[in-house]
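User: Please predict structures.

Assistant: First:
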Amino acid sequence: MNENKTPNKMNDMEQGLVKEMKETENISIRISPFAVRGGKKLSWSDVNMTVTKRGVKHRVLDNVYGEVPEKEITAIMGPSGCGKTSLLSILSGRLKSKGTLKITSDMRLDNHKVMPTSLGVRQQIAFVAQDDSLQITSTPRESIRFSAKLRLPRSMTDDELDILTERMLHELGLTKCADTIVGGPLLKGISGGERKRTSVGVELVVKPALVFLDEVC
């Protein structure tokens, strides 16, 4: 005797639970700066940079090429003055040809050719410079939250921004100095290491696909 078996359908309660779980997962990803997400493969070739001074052309970068696999840490090493900062500035879209400065490059994200200076590309790449540009009278909490408020989608609520900021402060070991002013040469504030970690937090909080750290240590 054959019996026709039909798959069990979820009742309204089960469907509600599944929906709630998905919503909770989405919220968790939104408010976690360290949530697992897809990275980007970055590659570059034919990167050239020249500066003309008093009629003399100085070559800073000459046919530089390289690759950063997705979800991996890559170090660019070399002596002082060899062009490491210039290369990172070009790849992150912070430098472009202007006046006596000439730059050419072939940059690709996931094997697709892109313009590093385009807004869409710059939004995917965070850049932490050697010298921080933090407001000396702000605190680490204020700096990180301001960056998140300014650069993340408007759909982020104030509560989500607060949670995101607190998680970033905790992960970077900035909880104890979160409400101490950054300070500067004439105004005592947090330590040099705490300033650097705050600068990292200002960039990481927007959850970029790639992060460039210029002499982070």
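Second:
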Amino acid sequence: HAHLYIVVMMTRSLLVGIVPAIPSDIVQIYMLQILMLACMVMCIHYQPWRVPQLNFVDAFFSGVLILFLNIAAFCVHDPDIQVLGGVCIGMVSCALFLLAAVTFLAFLRHAGRLTKPFRFFLCHSKAEAGSFARWLKQELVGSPRMKRDVFLDADNLVSLRCLLGYVAADVETMVVIASKSIYLRPWCVGEMTTACINDVPSVL
């Protein structure tokens, strides 16, 4: 759902390459701090990595880099100590606040208090149960009690490479439509195995 985050990464790399062209050392450090803080905020907000722990790692290392930039600012010749101290305190405070926020969000997700985007994942063999899976999704989505979407690969799958990632991180319950050849389909077996490894509840 955050596939356009690659634009953020490319823009960050471009700006990091441009910053050294600025004549003032202290301005270079300030610009890098602002850039890394903006990237840290976007990482926390959009959570682009499918594995939740990677979002935390990305934000953590952005915060560490901001801390190192603050330390490097004191090594600049003839800096304005008062202004420099205020900026460093502000940057460190923002970084610590954002790290606390992403840690809290990770804890909530781990504790199950943050809902996943898909209530059910329909694991099925298209040849034998494709029509039944379509009917089942329509019935589930049409229920007044259903507040979230139901994952059906024909509707929701953007790339086959992301399929098992959806099962691991974005699905609350796996629904296995047990047709005769369900255990002979490699992708179906992969989906069930991924659900088992990641403790996703499954019903048959």
